[in-house]
Amino acid sequence: MAEYVLQTEDVAIHYGGVKAVDGVAMTLERGQIRGLIGPNGAGKSTVIDAITGRRRLTRGKVVLGGQDVSALGVVERRQRGLSRSFQRTSIFAQMPVRKQVELASWKMGMADPGADADDVLRELSLHTMSDVIAADLGYGEQRRLDLAIALVGSPTVLLLDEPMAGLSVKESLDLAQHLKALTSRRNVSVLLVEHDMDVVFGISDVVTVFELGRVIAAGSPAEVRSNPRVREAYLGSAA
Ligand SMILES: Nc1ncnc2c1ncn2[C@@H]1O[C@H](COP(=O)(O)OP(=O)(O)OP(=O)(O)O)[C@@H](O)[C@H]1O
C-alpha cells in the first residue's frame, strides 16, 4: 500500500448553509504533485485552509505523516512539516532576500538558519540575489522568494494556492520547473491549486477536480482530461 504523507478523510467545511467543502477525500504520496482544479467557488482554497488548520473542520480528518492533526493549530502543523505559500504576503518588502529567509528559518527553530536560508535560496535560484531588497525583485522572483520562505525547515508537504497568478508565461514556466525539481530533489509533496491548465496538466502526477465542494474526478492528467463529466463541467474547449 502506498504511504501517504497527507490524507484528508471526509473533510467538510460549512458556512451556515453554504457547503464550501463537503466530504473530500484526497491523498498525497511522497514527492508527488497533485493538481487541484475546479470552477470559481468550487472550494479549492477552503480545502487548503482546512488542511493548514486555518479553518476549523465541520467534519472529517486531516492526517499528516500518519498522524491525525485535525485538532492542531496552523503553527503546530507547520512545525510538523505542512507548509503553504502566501503569494508574497509573507514577504517584508524592505528587507534583503537572504535576511528574511534566515529570519523565517530562525522562527522555525532551525539549528543553523543561515545554512538553511542558503540552501533554499540556491534551490530557487535566488542565491545571487541574497542582498537585494525584496521590493527591488521582479514579480516572478518575489513569488520564488515566497516559496523559499515556505521551504525553510524542510517541510514534507507544500500547499500552493494559485502560485502562477499574475506571472508571465516565461515566469510561470520557470516556477513550474522549480516546483518539479523540488519534488525530486527534496522529496517534497505538493498540492497545487492553479487556474493555468497548461501548468497543472504539465507538472502534476495526479489531478483532482472539484465542483461545489466535492470531488467529481481524480486520476492521471490524461484520465482527467478525457473524463466526460470534467470536460462538460469545467474544461470545455480548453481540454
Ligand atoms: N468565510 C466564508 N463565509 C461564507 N462563505 C464562504 C467563505 N469563504 C468561502 N465561502 C464560500 O465557499 C465556497 C468555496 O469558496 P472557495 O474560495 O474555497 O472556492 P475556490 O474554488 O477557491 O474559488 P476560486 O477559484 O474563485 O478561488 C464559495 O461558495 C464561497 O463563496
Q: What does this 3D model show about the protein?
A:
This protein is α/β, with parallel strands linked by helices. It folds into two domains: 1-81 and 156-164 and 188-239, P-loop containing nucleotide triphosphate hydrolases (Rossmann fold, 3-Layer(aba) Sandwich), CATH 3.40.50.300; 86-154, no CATH class. Helix content is 37%, strand content 26%. It has helices spanning 44-52, 74-79, 97-107, 113-123, 139-151, 169-186, 197-203, 221-226, 228-235; strands at residues 4-15, 18-29, 33-37, 59-64, 67-68, 82-84, 157-161, 189-193, 206-211, 214-219. The protein has a six-stranded mixed beta sheet with strand order 6-7-8-3-9-10, with helices on both faces. It has a four-stranded antiparallel beta sheet with strand order 2-1-4-5, with helices on one face. Strand 9 (206-211) and strand 10 form a beta hairpin. Helix 4 crosses helix 5 (139-151). The radius of gyration is 18 Å and the shape is globular. The two termini are 32 Å apart. The model has no long low-confidence stretch (mean pLDDT 93). The structure holds adenosine-5'-triphosphate. The site of adenosine-5'-triphosphate has 11 residues, from strand 2 and helix 1. Residues 15, 18, 20, 38, 40-46 line the site of adenosine-5'-triphosphate. This is ABC transporter-related protein. Pfam families: ABC_tran (PF00005), BCA_ABC_TP_C (PF12399). GO terms for molecular function: ATP binding; ATP hydrolysis activity.
